[in-house]
Amino acid sequence: MATKIKRMLFVLSKANLDSVYAAFIMANGARMEGIEAEIFFTFFGLEAIEKKKLSNLKISTVGNPAMHMPTMLGGLPGIEAFATKMMKNEMEKLDLPPVDEFLEILSDSGVSLWACKLAVDMFHLEEKDLIGDLDGILTIGDFYNRADIDGTHLLFI
Fold first, then answer.
1. Could you give the CA distance from residue 42 to residue 30 in angstroms, rounded to a whole number?
2. Rounded to an integer, what is the distance from CA 146 to the centroid of its chain?
3. Which domain holds residue 23?
4. Residue 21 clears pLDDT 60, i.e. is over it
């Protein structure tokens, strides 16, 4: 039976490691199932495609209920670095590529990668600050127009 989902559009608004990998894995999975996929990077999600920042993404330990620790403990020096190192070690065991390689894999598989114009302007970025595999910079209106196709689903991460 053919799927009714034809296209998945992911909106990534945070560049914490767990959100970035969730979007990347889901977009990659969509492509593996023959579903078109696009990722729209907005607000702090832009850090996942900023050349200077994408290799230094972290796990958020403060205010993250999945960490199962008091907020105060999550803010102690070294906790975020420790949690990030642990997560990266687990991802390496599963042979998940680092962010820069994953972006190349996504682009090569046909996932469209878009930066949000408002966020780019707000953070005073230029296209040269972003990865080369970027398909372009879109306004939110342009992005919504891309969603105006039967069988398209939007997912905010």
1. 21
2. 18
3. 7-156
4. yes
Phi/psi at 109 (nearest 5 deg)? -85, -5
How far is C-alpha 76 from the chain's CA centre? 26
70-81 pLDDT per residue, tens: 666 666 677 777
Number of domains composing the chain = 1
Q: Is residue 2 part of a domain?
A: no
Give me the long-range contacts of 120-125 (CB less than 8 A, separation at least 24): 120/46, 122/43, 123/46, 125/46, 125/50
Q: What b/e string do you get for 7-41 counting C-beta neighbours within 10 Å, with b at 16 or more?
A: bbbbbbbbbbbbbbbbbbeebbebbeeebbbbbbb
pLDDT (average), residues 7-28: 95
Closest CA to 14 of 51, 39, 32: 39
Would you say residue 93 lies in a domain? Answer: yes
